Amino acid sequence: MFWQTSRYRIDLGSPRVMGIVNITPDSFTDGGRYLDASAALGRCEQLLSQGADLLDLGAESTRPGAQPLSAQEELSRLLPVLQGALQLGVPVSVDTYKPEVMQVALDMGADIINDIWALRWLDPEPSTAALSGLAVVAAHPNCGVCLMHMHREPQTMQVSPMEGEVLAQVLSFLSQRALALTQRGVAKARIVLDPGIGFGKTAEQNFSLLAQQQTLLNGGYPLLAGWSRKRSLASSLDLPSVAGTDTPHPRMLASVAAALLAVERGAAIVRVHDVRETVQALKVLSAIK
Q1: Catalytic residue among 230, 251, 265, 276
Q2: Is the full-model pTM beyond 0.90?
């Protein structure tokens, strides 16, 4: 199985590690550390040296309760880092839900759009209201896209999380969003799905999704799993709900364990902060197989 992106055809025959680079002041575990472009590019290089297969750049925090950012401010943070990251010889993903930002990033050569809204968000500004993420991605000849499930939106998703059994709801939503793209002529090989761990779900629901994750493969698309440092891990182990300055991060071991379990249950890509440790764990898994 392969993931077709703008510049690369990524072999998913073995699990791939996506390194997170947050170019933000307020992301939930490393906000402010890489807001400066040179620091963010240094982080990109560090993650690649630790074994990351691809990079995911995000210039707006989408943690629970995060306030939205204008497209202009997001682009001012993103573009200097994206320009440098595109020279590093690996696929580069841009974590954004704004069509305007998607268009600029793809025009610069970004390989993947990673969208928590699964291409549903529409700009309320009249000047850009006609532009949709669905249209931007569909118009591109071969960029990759990751469609994520999110209940409600970042400001309210954990105030009123999903109710009941979530697996069928998540699978139905992701299948519908993928269908919306393929009906516009986007090849299936360009699409990856993400169940959206922590996005409008309780800890119990998140772990239920992990336990039953293989069912999500029934849609016929590769899966990306994003468990890294999520609050559900803290709740399960009585870890601090707010990250401190410890090195390693207090949720690192739990994050690696969750990534490993996700891969065992069929995830093709894991999106992580702790690249070195995740890569080492995946090598052990590969050795026993």
Answers
A1: 230
A2: yes
Cα(246)–Cα(159) distance, integer angstroms: 28
**Residue 53, by phi and psi: left (phi above 0), alpha (psi -120 to 50) or beta?**
alpha
Q: For the chain, what are the domain ranges?
A: 2-288
The span from the CA of 175 to the CA of 128, in Å, is 27
218 pLDDT more than 60: yes
Compute the C-alpha angle 77/247/78, nearest 5°.
Answer: 10
Distance of CA 267 to the CA centre of its chain: 13
According to the model, what pLDDT value does residue 26 have?
Answer: 58
Kindly state the tokens that stand for 279.
């890569």
Task: Of 175, 181, 213, 265, give the one whose Cα is nearest residue 4.
Answer: 181
Q: Is residue 230 annotated as part of the catalytic site, yes or no?
A: yes
Cβ-based neighbours of 287, under 8 Å, separated by 6 or more: none
Pairing mode of beta strands 269-272, 224-225 = parallel
What's the CATH class of domain 2-288? alpha beta
* Known catalytic membership, residue 201: no
Alpha helices in 1-116 (DSSP H): 37-49, 71-85, 99-108
